Amino acid sequence: MLLIDCGGDVLQRMMAAGLDPARLHALALTHEHPDHISGFPLLIEKLWLMGRTEPLPIYGPAAALEVARALFEAFHTKGWLGVPERAWHPVPMEASTHVFTDHAFEVVASPVIHPVPTIGFRIRGASGGTVAYSADTAKCDAVVDLARDADVLVHEATGSQPGVHSSAQEAAEIAAQAGAGRLVLVHLPPAMSQLDLAPAQRVFPNTALGEELGAYPLPRSVAPAGVPVA
């Protein structure tokens, strides 16, 4: 299982979604902002308390990894015997960078547009299903490339802010340009509802709001199928 970002109590949300934290084999960080990374120390602590001993590979921009490391070290954990090692893997800020390939996933990253170094991902499952994740970004061609013919594009829809964030309609334009199969909107403003989807759905009809603990099955994904959204 691949986890992208950890802004809160991720293990609690995993278990609420029916996912087994023992299956977590990698963490990918998109950027250093607190809503995407502040739960990192708690993630490591809970994995330790659950008995994990193997190292956790962590991928992301160098700046994000430095913040994650500093957050964990702020809690004076040197006396915690047996805490899983953190295996840090900086991802170059270059288009279509290969992040890793293993038995379950092939992961590619590209820089997107945000005030701090930020990457989006393209993730291909072992049996062919493909998901793209925009991360926090203004509308950009990099996400079109990441989402090209993807089964699902998970795209932020905070609201159009040049150089910072995207609107739902802009995300729909990206999905249409990429030829994605489905668009799931996340990172939503508090007041957003189904009624607000109409402009986006006119551009890309297969657009939906991401649901807390929702699962979005892929046509050819390995079991257990789906992309949990926390």
SSE order and pairing:
Elements: E1 2-4, H1 10-16, E2 26-28, H2 34-37, H3 40-49, E3 56-60, H4 62-73, E4 86-90, E5 97-101, E6 105-111, E7 119-125, E8 130-133, H5 141-146, E9 152-156, H6 168-178, E10 183-186, H7 198-203, E11 207-209
Parallel strand pairs: 1-2, 2-3, 3-4, 8-9, 9-10, 10-11
Antiparallel strand pairs: 5-6, 6-7, 7-8
Mind explaining what this structure looks like?
There is one protein chain. The chain has 230 residues and is of the alpha/beta class. It folds into 2 domains: 1-90, Ribonuclease Z/Hydroxyacylglutathione hydrolase-like (Metallo-beta-lactamase, Chain A, 4-Layer Sandwich); 93-210, 4-Layer Sandwich (Metallo-beta-lactamase, Chain A). It is built from 7 helices and 11 strands. It has helices spanning 10-16, 34-37, 40-49, 62-73, 141-146, 168-178, 198-203; strands spanning 2-4, 26-28, 56-60, 86-90, 97-101, 105-111, 119-125, 130-133, 152-156, 183-186, 207-209. The strands form 2 sheets. The protein has a 7-stranded mixed sheet with strand order 5-6-7-8-9-10-11. Strand 3 (56-60), helix 4 (62-73) and strand 4 (86-90) form a beta-alpha-beta unit. The longest helix has 12 residues, at 62-73.
